[in-house]
Amino acid sequence: MKQLMIAAALAAALGALSDPALAQKRSLTVANANSDIGKLDPHQTAAGGDKGLLNWVFNGLTRIRPGQASPEFIEPDLAESWTHNENGTEWTFKIRQGVQCHSGYGEFTAQDAAYSLKRAADKATSIFAGDFEALGQAEATDTYTLKIGLKHPIPSLLGLVSNYHGGMMVCKKAAEEMGEGFGKRPIGTGPFMFVEYQPQQFVKLTANKQYFRGAPQLDDITYRLIPSDATRDLAFRNGELDMIFGRQNDQWVQRTREIPGVKVVAMEPAELNMLHLNMTMKPLDDIRVRQAIAHALGRKAMVQFSGVEASREAVSVIPNGNLGIDTNPGLLDYDVEKAKQLLKEAGYPNGVTLNSVESTLPSLLRLMEAVQAQLRQAGITLNLELVDHATYHANIRKDLSGVTLYQAARFPVADIYLTQFFHSKSTVGLPTAITNFSHCAAADAEIEAARSEQDGERQKELWRKAQEKIAGQVCAVPFSESLVVWAWRDTLDLGYEMKGSLNLAPQITEKAHFTK
Fold this sequence. Notes:
Blueprint lengths: L1 H17 L8 E6 L15 H7 L7 E3 L9 E3 L2 E6 L5 E6 L14 H11 L14 E8 L2 E6 L6 H4 L11 H7 L13 E7 L3 E6 L12 E6 L3 H9 L5 E3 L4 H8 L4 E16 L9 H10 L2 H8 L4 E3 L22 H10 L6 E8 L2 H15 L3 E8 L1 H8 L6 E6 L5 H9 L21 H9 L3 H18 L2 E14 L2 E2 L19 E2 L2
Parallel strand pairs: 1-10, 1-11, 14-15
Antiparallel strand pairs: 2-3, 4-5, 5-7, 6-7, 8-9, 9-10, 11-17, 12-16, 12-17, 13-17, 18-19
């Protein structure tokens, strides 16, 4: 009788496991707003829709603890420990032993780490090469020891080698073997491995059972590409999707929170929305025209347009919350009549017409249309050349846009944003180009001096002066900051409390699972 009872219990358990209605869900379906993936090479893409996905596939030497976005939460990742000399120019990292590259590409070692850093620093293979300007050497002294030498100290090397942008570690053998193909079949060390990419449809990932932190509790992830907000929302409401990228406005946040069993998070870091004005193009070469644009664009009105739950007012030419932020750098106030007067003084009494390359990505296009309407009140006509998001990124880097709306967050230290967007070496079209769309060179001296300044207060003062000079020259016009909005089923337990993510998407780790 006892044996019969045990057999019956086992049969019931097996029946529950085989019943789809009772089995625990183990497949995650996510949707982003991108029409397609740009590149799946972490050193070749800055698009939010790409890097969130790549954060599930790759690791850094360090990482910011899942659920956080501040440098204070940096912890070991592929490196288990590190030391450095007194002035921070020589670093030694001990690489974690036994970490396996995906798809049988072998153990990740210090040789892979050195290769990855050199690759990230090479403009031929990385769009983040400018971030690694200070890198002097990266050498493996043995299988698990990496030595890094810097030309000069930088504010945060540990952030530079974290799971973000050029800090993502690639596997040397795979990258060399695949060449250009690496961007369509990425090989990392993270909790999920690439399986399939269908253009304009989806990317499929599967669990990395050899992951060094433990096998993921999810079996696979389908990352769907749904640019239509309405289609994406409907699919989420119908249960086809477990997690979606949301709209950055209060109406969407409030409406989605009303759906039973759904969690909505507007998370840090906020992306700074800023108009970059190409000062080499007429009439933007005249500071009075640039000042007119700044006076014509109301920061409070732009926040009202999106709503206070999903946005806030910009305070400087770098995002609020960055180490070194100056919250009063001299941004010009909203004054339409002053804008009209400046245009008249510049020789444009009937207004000006400007051209802008703009993405069809809904979140960006809506913002730019609101900007367009505001500028029109001052006699400033903004013609938009609409292109898909990947083409937008390509064309603005070819210096084809007079006015560029760029929405971005970066590692939250002032040096990163100031260098990438406002140092002359970062000007688009140059061999050292990053994202200086305005051709600004107003604060090169302060940006450079701050990098090697050892006194923290003096360093902040240099960053403050840099922001004031950039604002004074009106290289760009910041107007609002957009929080990144995501929603997911409350049956999905991420394994941590979500407060933020530098990669602009929830980090799906080995701990993520469905509770039912």
